[in-house]
């Protein structure tokens, strides 16, 4: 029995993608967002082909392509010597190999494009400054067919309250520092044609150009303490001093870039444990609410977009809703687990020190761009259905 209507908690990337995916499947939805205005915290975002393919299907990609940047490659570099260790080609190569583009953009750009598509879609209704009571059950639609409730409300989801044995968020022990650099002030080692990942002992830095600001987005990830449930904390002099200590053995030019950072912000990195994503009746979790993961594979937003699209396919099918939710979770969990493992491996490799770091650099320098891209086929070539 196909779902008649969906209620979505949260109007972030996961929630808006879900609303558009439901509309594509012929299911109207109401999106409820507790904030009075939609604002996207953070700066940069990487959209890999597995996600951009879905955004194209949802009619959003064209709006993004007019403003985003498609880098030619993803470079892995030594944070100590500034030497390129390996590269993965993207740009036109990504379109040819994986059938969709790899782009970088401001998070707010994606949020605005999704919002504009939702507001254009008659099957979607957005309600700001409104919260859903997670304890209230989902009422049936007018003709008695079931109504689905989707928890797309992030890592600290309230909707988990009605999902027994649900995932539990926990601080990972890592924090992310974020700042932007105007193009005129950017150091010469930042490349306008690439996503640059600088690897070093116990930390790494990712930098890439943002067309929207005419400069670079920079994120530095290292160990640290959590300030609590926030995505946008002020650094302060003491925390900045701790950050610089983490990069004490890095190249002097990188340290100068960190020292010159204008009003950097930071946020704690939380991840969710394994657990059930649905209550077996009418409520399901997607995105960070279901499986918040570390950003070492740059797939958090992509996995949320995949969740939204595939959930709509199951909800719009012939199965009873409880069976559809079970099938959705069974389909998605193996992929999420593999993405988690990839992120965990990347963290080990990116933050390696001592002899392990030396061995990593040697191994990476021996890998051709072609062989490296082979290892991304399962991730970037995936087609949600």
Automatic annotation (TrEMBL):
Record-given protein name: FAD-dependent monooxygenase
Essential cofactor(s): FAD
Keyword flag ATP-binding: no
InterPro entries assigned to the protein according to its UniProt record, in alphabetical order: FAD-bd, FAD-dep_Monooxygenase_BioMet, FAD/NAD-bd_sf
Domain FAD-binding intervals: 6-337
Coiled-coil blocks: none
The species this protein was found in: Ectorhizobium quercum
Molecular functions (GO terms): FAD binding; monooxygenase activity
Oxidoreductase among keywords: yes
Record keywords: FAD, Flavoprotein, Monooxygenase, Oxidoreductase
Top-level taxon of origin: Bacteria
């Amino acid at each position: 029995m196909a779902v008649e209507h969906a209620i979505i908690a949260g109007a972030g990337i996961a929630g808006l993608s879900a609303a558009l995916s439901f509309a594509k499947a012929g299911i109207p939805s109401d999106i409820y967002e507790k904030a009075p205005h939609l604002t996207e915290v953070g700066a940069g975002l990487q959209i890999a082909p597995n996600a951009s393919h879905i955004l194209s299907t949802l009619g959003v990609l064209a709006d993004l392509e007019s403003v985003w940047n498609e880098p030619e490659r993803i470079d892995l570099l030594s944070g100590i010597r500034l030497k390129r260790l390996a590269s993965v080609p993207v740009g036109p190569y990504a379109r040819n190999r994986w059938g969709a583009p790899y782009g970088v953009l401001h998070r707010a750009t994606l949020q605005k494009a999704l919002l504009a598509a939702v507001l254009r879609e008659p099957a979607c209704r957005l309600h700001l400054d409104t919260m859903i009571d997670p304890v209230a059950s989902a009422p049936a639609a007018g003709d008695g067919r079931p109504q689905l409730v989707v928890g797309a409300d992030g890592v600290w989801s309230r909707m988990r309250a009605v999902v027994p044995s649900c995932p539990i968020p926990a601080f990972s022990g890592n924090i992310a520092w974020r700042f932007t650099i105007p193009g005129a002030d950017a150091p010469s080692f930042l490349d306008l044609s690439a996503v640059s990942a600088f690897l070093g002992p116990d930390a790494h830095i990712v930098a890439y150009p943002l067309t929207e600001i005419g400069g670079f987005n920079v994120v530095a990830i290292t160990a640290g303490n959590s300030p609590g449930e926030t995505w946008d904390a002020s650094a302060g002099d003491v925390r900045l001093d701790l950050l610089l200590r983490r990069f004490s053995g890095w190249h002097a030019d990188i340290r100068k870039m960190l020292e010159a950072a204008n009003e950097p912000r930071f946020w704690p990195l939380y991840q969710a444990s394994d657990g059930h994503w649905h209550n077996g009746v009418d409520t399901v979790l997607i995105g960070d609410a279901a499986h918040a993961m570390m950003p070492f594979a740059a797939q958090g937003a992509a996995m949320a977009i995949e969740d939204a699209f595939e959930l709509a396919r199951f909800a719009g099918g012939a199965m009873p809703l409880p069976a559809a939710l079970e099938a959705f979770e069974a389909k998605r969990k193996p992929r999420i687990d593999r993405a988690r493992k990839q992120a965990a491996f990347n963290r080990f490799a990116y933050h390696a020190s001592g002899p392990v770091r030396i061995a990593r650099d040697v191994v990476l320098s021996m890998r051709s761009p072609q062989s490296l891209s082979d290892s991304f086929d399962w991730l970037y070539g995936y087609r949600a259905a």
